[in-house]
Amino acid sequence: MAVEYKDYYKLLGVERSASADQISRAYKKLARQYHPDLNPGNKQAEEKFKEINEAYEVLKDPEKRRLYDQLGPNWQHGQNFQGAPGFENMHFSFNGQGFDGAGFSDFFETLFGGARSARGGRNNAGFGADPFGGFSARPRRGRDVEAELSLSLEDVARGGKRSVTIQTTGGPKTLEVNVPAGIREGAKLRLAGQGGDMPGGTPGDLFLRVRYLPHAHFRVDGDNLQSDIWLAPWEAVLGARVPVRTLDGEVELTIPPGTSSGRKFRLRGKGLGSAAARGDLLARVMIRVPEQINETERALWERLAESSSFSARQHRS
């Protein structure tokens, strides 16, 4: 099967003459954009994330970049590499899954070598490639553990460090986790080495799945939030300035005269999401009438009803 050439410079969006600093900045920007924690369940983002990691693994290293540049698109007609120095025991983690060679493309493995068995297939038996040509057993690893991390919408909007207490065989253990601002519900946070123990080996990882706690004022719609504004009938007719609750505190909203129930006002940047791309708050107008009125109020309402030409059921064009 033909192995397709991959242009690592194009994947990172940089020129072939780009400096190491430019490559690093481009990689960090793309990694944030396609990180699986911010794109749960998005297979295209997952593949893109793996591609940019593969490109960065090569271009960040001067020697590997030099070898890659030497071969270029005609790499299949060049030297026969059996494995570049430093790639023999490569292992990286992606969204809780380990990749030992299999996490990279066939082009990468053909060019730089990978964990292969004596028969030429991928080695999936839990062994790592030995730089001297053989295979060495990796330490056994404990099982990964998954738990739920419940967050209020205020915590999601702010992000930052949170303390989490989990139950272990040795009793409760409190850990500190850094929550990215705007993290999506269902995303997983990985705490390396905090999973199941393995005597004589290495512990597994702990994955915290994010769950949003119900909120008394807001409903979640992706990165947007929805809420209700309650108006008295005269505020809707005459207009008003009313306080509106947001995750960042109260703001004042101007209600224009003649506002009907159900109309929505968009407060930009008051929703969820990262600081650079935060969603909006959609505030829906709801008109509330008094359940009980006195005789004076009743007379005024009756007078208004008699003198007004307005019909709520009349068709509006």
UniProtKB/TrEMBL annotation:
The keyword Cell membrane does not apply. Keywords: Chaperone. Residues 7-72 form the J domain. Gene3D superfamilies: DnaJ domain, Urease metallochaperone UreE, N-terminal domain. GO terms for biological process: protein refolding. PROSITE patterns: DNAJ_1, DNAJ_2. SUPFAM superfamilies: Chaperone J-domain, HSP40/DnaJ peptide-binding domain. It comes from the Bacteria. One of its GO terms (cellular component) is cytoplasm. InterPro entries: DnaJ_C, DnaJ_domain, DnaJ_domain_CS, HSP40/DnaJ_pept-bd, J_dom_sf. PANTHER family: DNAJ HOMOLOG 1, MITOCHONDRIAL-RELATED (PTHR43096:SF52). This is J domain-containing protein. It comes from Candidatus Desulfovibrio intestinavium.
